[in-house]
Amino acid sequence: MSITIASVDANFEREPLRRPFGFKGGYMSEIWQSIALLKATTGQRAIGLNTQSVLWSDADVFVNHSEAAGNSLMFAMTEYALRQAKGMTFDTPFDLLDRLLPATWEYGKAITRNPDLRMTFALNALVGVDAAAWLLYARENDFTSFDDMIPAEYQPLLSHRHSLVGCIPLMAYAVPMPEIIRHVEEGYFFMKVKIGSDPDKDGDQEKMLQWDMARVEEIHRAIGSRETPYTTNGKIPYYFDANGRYDSKDRLRRLLDHCDKIGMLDQIMIVEEPFPEDYLVDVSDLGVRIAADESAHCDNDVRERISLGYGAIALKPIAKTLSMTLKIAEVAHQANVPMFCADLTVGPIQVDWNKSFAARIAPLPGMKIGVVETNGHQNYRNWEAMQSYHPQAGAPWTTVHNGCFELSKDFFLRSGGILTDSKHYASLVIG
Predict the structure, then answer these.
(1) What pLDDT was estimated at residue 172?
(2) What is the CATH number of the domain that holds 94?
(3) Are 292 and 271 contacting, i.e. CB atoms less than 8 angstroms apart?
(4) 96 and 231 share a domain?
């Protein structure tokens, strides 16, 4: 069924963070939550949410503007895309994204005055628009579940049904050691550790390496001996995220050699995005599983990364749109490359968009259950209020128990609540 967009609208809320959130050598103090509204000529309407992450999607934009200005630029791209979408007719959300992405990306290059603006910045700006398109597509076609909504050709990669999905918290630069230990004592068992700090803000790679060595050693000494029933070796797994900060394989090898020396290496399950995306080298000889995230903008990029020996792909329907994520996941699935769902410090509703994916993909090698990263509970000052905006607020599967989300039949029956508009966010664009 073809869908014609009759009207559009957008708005945003600024959500403050508990403390400065550090990665890629920078720090954020707030995160904007934008809302996109699409209304069809039939009268049917839907809203989609987007968590804006300027620092993650293009650090150059973050560095060259104030934090508010960078967020304003991304929101301007969302609003531009919506204006372009008004009057368009589409059969599937893939069609709409294919039409909007090139124009939105070019508009972004113009307003940021950056001809090298990363595609991921444009995709991040389009997440809410794409989510609204999927919900409108579901409603116009009478699809009542996430499974019904996903086209048949993508169903094989989403064939699992995990009753447990491990929650991966994030240990950013500023997270103190007592808090890391507390997370483990609360039942969390899969630690994502940000590496690549710029301790003296001078870009010195050697200082970065020494800081990382000390940081991971301190973490390992504190929690490395803890056990978990959810891995095949019974040990806590580590997930290092460098966000492209390492300049060479040799420097990364020095970090890994240090990890080997302190008995940490065999617990490193993933090293995500260690190098700048234009550093095209084979990574298959590093002795750990290297994952692609920011560099895997689209399905073609995933093919390139797999050819370079990347052994895992981070999926982010909450950062690169559901449409693009399905294309990315299909390439990885066909190549038999493991996948996992990573966060963008999103709110509770988008956690369930990610969780809906994580509950259905194969577990990572070495894991007995599915996993999903989510760190909003660690970082948002108003997390409890944001939880109340969820259409299924209070459902057992919206909270973590002993480090896991327990996914009952009700979770799958209700599609994690993501097919229902949030009254709070709808009020910001509908009134």
Answers:
(1) 86
(2) 3.30.390.10
(3) no
(4) no
Count of helix runs (H) and strand runs (E) in the chain: 17, 14
pLDDT tens-digit series, residues 107-166: 999 999 999 999 999 999 999 999 999 999 999 999 999 999 999 999 999 999 999 999
- The confidence score (pLDDT) of residue 343 equals 94
249: exposed, middle or buried (C-beta count within 10 Å: 0-12, 13-18, 19+)? middle
> What pLDDT was estimated at residue 25?
77
**What residues in the chain have per-residue pLDDT under 70?**
431
Is residue 186 domain-shared with residue 308, that is, in the same domain? yes
- Give the pLDDT score at 26: 84
Please state, in angstroms and rounded to a whole number, the distance separating the CA atoms of residues 420 and 138.
Answer: 11
Please say whether the dihedral angle defined by the alpha carbons of residues 278, 282, 284 and 286, taken in this order, is positive or negative: negative
Cβ atoms within 10 A of the Cβ of 168, count? 24
pLDDT of residue 1: 84
Q: Dihedral sign, CA of 22, 23, 28, 32?
A: negative
Return the pLDDT at 415: 97
Q: Which pLDDT belongs to residue 431?
A: 66
Domain with 195 in it: 152-427
Distances (CA, A) of 86 to 8, 28, 40, 70, 408: 6, 33, 9, 25, 39
Angle, helix 205-223 to helix 177-185, in steps of 10 degrees: 40
Phi and psi, residue 343, nearest 5°: -95, 170
CB 169 within 8 A of CB 411: no
Q: The CATH number of the domain where 284 resides is what? A: 3.20.20.120
Q: d(Cα 400, Cα 337) in Å, to the nearest integer?
A: 28
